Amino acid sequence: MNHMPTHHEPRGARLGSTTTGNATIPVPTSSGIFAVWLREDLTREAAVEYWKGPHARIVEGLPTNAEYLQHHFSPTDHGYWPSSPTVGTVVPPSWRCDGIAEVRLASMAAAITSPARLRKVYLDEQNVFDRVLGNLTGPRGGRWWTEGHDTNVGHRTVLLLRRRRGVGRHAFRKYVHDRIGPALHEAGARDLRTYTFLRWSSLPHPTPGISHDNPVFRRYHGCVVLGADSRAAMDGILASKPVADLVADQHTVMTGVHAFTVEHTEAVTTTVPPVRP
Q: For residue 75, how many other CB atoms are within 10 A of its CB?
């Protein structure tokens, strides 16, 4: 993995995507995106506080994670990605997750070979979550289009993507990284990351007492995290010509794009070791 900045590095020394001519070359990452549903028998306030407090402290100690961010979704502001025929953008009330954990892995091998260290995390999840759906990108399956976590972003949006049946995984991956990423980057998105997932399996995340139910017609196959100066600025990005061009052919690859406003990002771990892929 490329070195990403710590909060103590001068901005000029930070490494992120590189620009050659008019083309931006994103940094590949090996990552995990974990969609979570908070426990319904706890108040939202209590569940959120536990997630970003006691639970975060447990995950923070994992040597497998080079970065760990919690994106807490707004319960009301979602479903605003531009629609087009046959592409769903309304988030179903029965399938509205409460946020995602965005994890950049120190290595895929470390993530697979550290079950003992993960046990404490797994056992703690019953204290705050009803459902956790973990998706791994595989080696270099993610892309960072901008520098490391930007604490100055005023608004973040997370897009959860659903691949169209009959479209191959390779074609979907190319669309996400070669079409969605460049379009949003050209439109001015800040702190931009794109991810595509390996085939779904609950086996990498065997949390006791937590639901891993993930019906085929509800599954997500990719994710985009993007920032802007404000919610109004995000609306401007979504109304831009690069995004309009993207929306015009999104139906060829996807059946769903669900946008969620991030109410709060808890940056638990942001220091990445200087190791190149």
A: 13
CA distances from 265 to 69, 71, 164, 224, 269 (A): 7, 5, 30, 15, 12
SS3 (DSSP) at 152: coil
| d(C-alpha 138, C-alpha 136), whole Å | 6
Would the pTM count as exceeding 0.85? yes
Q: Which residues contact 167 (CB under 8 A, 6 or more apart)?
A: 252, 253
Name the DSSP letter for residue 165.
Answer: T
φ/ψ of residue 46, rounded to 5 = -65, -40
CB neighbour list of residue 120: distance below 8 Å, 6 or more residues apart: 58
Spatial distance between the Cα atoms of 224 and 159, rounded to a whole number of angstroms:
5
Residue 20 pLDDT more than 60?
A: no
- Residue 2 pLDDT > 80, yes or no? no
| Residue where the block lists tokens 């980057």 | 185
246 CB-contact burial (10 Å; exposed 0-12 / middle 13-18 / buried 19+): buried
Q: Which three-class secondary structure state does DSSP give residue 85?
A: coil
User: How does strand 31-38 pair with strand 99-105?
Assistant: antiparallel
The residue whose two tokens read 């993207």 is: 246
- CA 137 to chain centroid: 10
Encoding tokens for residue 7? 């909060």
Q: What is the mean pLDDT of residues 252-273?
A: 89
- pLDDT value at 1 more than 50: no
Which range scores top for mean pLDDT: 110-124, 138-152, 222-236?
222-236
Q: Classify strands 155-163 and 254-269 as parallel, antiparallel or unpaired.
A: antiparallel
Q: Check: CB of residue 221 under 8 Å from CB of residue 162.
A: yes
